[in-house]
Design brief:
Layout lengths: L1 H18 L5 H18 L1 H4 L5 H14 L3 H14 L17 E2 L16 H12 L9 E3 L6 E3 L13 H18 L10 H13 L4 H13 L11 H7 L2 E2 L2 E6 L2 E7 L2 H6 L7 E5 L2 E2 H8 L8 H6 L12 E8 L2 E8 L1 E2 L13 E4 L3 E5 L8 H7 L5 E5 L12 H4 L8 E5 L7 E5 L15 E6 L6 H9 L5 E5 L9 E5 L5 E5 L2 E3 L15 E2 L4 H5 L4 H11 L1
Parallel strand pairs: 13-14, 14-17, 17-18, 18-22
Antiparallel strand pairs: 1-16, 2-3, 4-11, 5-6, 6-7, 7-8, 7-9, 9-10, 12-13, 15-16, 15-21, 19-20
Helix pairs in contact: 2-4, 2-7, 2-8, 5-6, 7-8, 7-9, 8-9
Length: 548
């Protein structure tokens, strides 16, 4: 018994000594970011808009910086929370009985961290959680139809002086907490979201130049690993360069293979050809450049990041760039001209919305076809052996009605999660609906093939999921973008626009599509040799499959 008591005393004393220990600047700022964001969305007075919460942050930051240890830090938090008034016990706090929560994003365990907070502060924060704001939200709202959040009543601070440390930190705090509480896929980020905060704090505190600050904002946005996310400014554009080569390329095996051109005539000036394999840019390996700049390239997965590297490797501030490339097995070097994007005269090939290929195989370009043309196209392709639906170009219109021809009965093809504004950090499950009546007989009885790749994103992925419920459907291609769910438009401090995937989309069995992409039956990736020979290897494999 005496040994047990002694052991407990050692633990208590150890925690007390640790709780009064010194703190790093990053620890103080990171903890303040969490407390500020928690109070913003949980405290009834703050959540209802009673306080100018940005100004409250600016007032408390000097006190935070002057704290020498955790005891002083906790006292600042205690006084801050106390100044907001008492939080009364809530009469309506329990969720509706039939609510099923998705809680993989939910984590308030930091509140109980004895290495940072005194027991009194932890109790106050937990009391606020239990009696959190339940009324109309001042800073966020959600669309009843789709469920993703919308920002409200935030000051944009457009044109603010980048040297203003308070506003730089506000930019970090505001975005970090929006992701912390309202991004459905926070649990999937490559780097733990708390660690992202710790990493970004020095970059927001001490940027050497305005460009460094803008790159920090870009890196923060990239950290959510979401193909819907983006951040751009005049500073980031200038950093990567406003001059483009006239060629479009695809990254394969750490090389950039030219696949087409922004401007055919300008490409001919420097004798650029489809199939040229570029290995170095200004003396640096293409693979090394991609690795160096990956933290500035948005994307849910590596496949999408390679696609989104279109203006990160060859762009620059000068009108020319030196490349090393391989053609016909020989290596060459030369200087290639670069141009302003507005001066590139891009001409796309005129494509048919549907046609019949060799072997009596139907083909539908889902990126071109209009919804009211679907009945006509399906009637024309009714007697084909198979129909290939190409989802490698984003659909311009609602093309869901195709399912009425390829499925004999309706299936629930997805379920989703959306943020619970009354319990920030938790998400609510909701079954999807199929809006489809059972057919007396299958309208199209041939094989159905879906073609997908990294350009199959968002709505295109959603369409693919729906069509996959058809009776005889096979999906062929490579990993899709992995950004599925309606977008939420956000505004960062300074008025910079960005966005996130606002709702989470899953297959009925709970399999994520975010980051992973849609399910693929036969994987086919384009090869360097295939590009050199001008072949569409994914389409070729689909044609082979029909004949198997």
């Amino acid at each position: 018994m005496k040994k047990t008591i002694l052991h407990l005393l050692i633990i208590i004393c150890g925690n007390t000594v640790f709780a009064q220990g010194p703190l790093t600047e990053t620890e103080k700022i990171a903890t303040t970011a969490k407390v500020w964001g928690f109070l913003k969305y949980y405290h009834p007075g703050v959540g209802s808009g009673k306080y100018n919460w940005d100004e409250e942050l600016f007032k408390v930051l000097p006190k935070i910086k002057n704290c020498k240890n955790t005891e002083q830090l906790s006292q600042v938090y205690f006084d801050w929370i106390k100044s907001l008034g008492d939080v009364k016990e809530s009469k309506r706090i329990d969720p509706i009985n039939d609510v099923k929560y998705f809680e993989r994003n939910f984590d308030l365990n930091w509140i109980d961290n004895v290495a940072i907070f005194t027991t009194e502060v932890s109790k106050k924060l937990r009391h606020i959680e239990t009696n959190r704001h339940q009324g109309k939200k001042h800073y966020v709202s959600s669309s009843k139809k789709v469920g993703n959040i919308e920002m409200r009543n935030e000051i944009d601070y457009k044109g603010f002086d980048w040297k203003d440390e308070n506003l730089r930190l506000l930019s970090l705090f505001r975005y970090w907490n929006l992701i912390e509480y309202f991004f459905p896929y926070k649990y999937q980020t490559d780097t733990d979201w708390d660690e992202v905060l710790n990493t970004m704090i020095p970059k927001f505190l001490y940027p050497e130049t305005e460009t460094n600050f803008h790159l920090a904002m870009l890196e923060l946005v990239v950290s959510i690993n979401d193909s819907h996310a983006y951040f751009t400014s005049d500073k980031t554009e200038a950093f990567f360069g406003i001059y483009w080569i006239p060629a479009i390329f695809k990254l394969i095996d750490n090389k950039a293979v030219i696949t087409s051109f922004h401007d055919d005539s300008l490409a001919r000036v420097d004798d650029l050809r489809v199939g040229d394999v570029i290995t170095k840019v200004n003396g640096k390996d293409v693979g090394e450049m991609f690795k160096e700049r990956e933290k500035y390239i948005t994307g849910s997965n590596n496949t999408q990041k390679k696609y989104m590297a279109f203006n990160r490797l060859f762009n620059g501030e000068s009108s020319a760039v030196n490349i090393e490339y391989v053609r016909d097995g020989q290596t060459f070097s030369k200087s290639v001209s670069r141009y302003l994007y507005k001066d590139l005269n891009y001409k796309s090939d005129k494509l048919e919305s549907f046609k019949i290929l060799n072997g009596n195989i139907g083909y539908v370009n889902m990126g071109i076809i209009k919804s009211n043309d679907i009945p006509k196209s399906m009637a024309s392709l009714q007697n084909t052996r198979a129909i290939i639906f190409d989802l490698r170009i984003y659909p311009k219109e609602d093309v869901h009605s195709v399912i009425n021809y390829i499925a004999s009965e309706g299936h629930n093809f997805y379920k989703k999660i959306y943020p619970d504004l009354d319990y920030p950090g938790k998400f609510i499950w909701q079954d999807g609906d199929h809006h489809f009546r059972k057919n007396e007989h299958l309208k199209y009885e041939g094989k159905v093939i879906l073609l997908v790749n990294e350009r199959t994103q968002s709505y295109a992925e959603f369409v693919a999921m729906r069509l996959q419920t058809g009776d005889h459907v096979t999906t062929i291609g490579s990993q899709t973008s992995g950004a599925n769910g309606r977008m939420s438009e956000l505004e960062m401090v300074g008025g910079f626009k960005t966005r996130i995937t606002g709702t989470g989309i899953f297959y009925p069995d709970g399999t994520e599509t975010q980051r992973k992409g849609v399910k693929i039956d036969i994987e086919v990736k384009p090869t360097i040799q295939g590009i050199i020979e001008g072949r569409d290897e994914v389409l070729d494999r689909a044609m082979e499959f029909v004949s198997e």
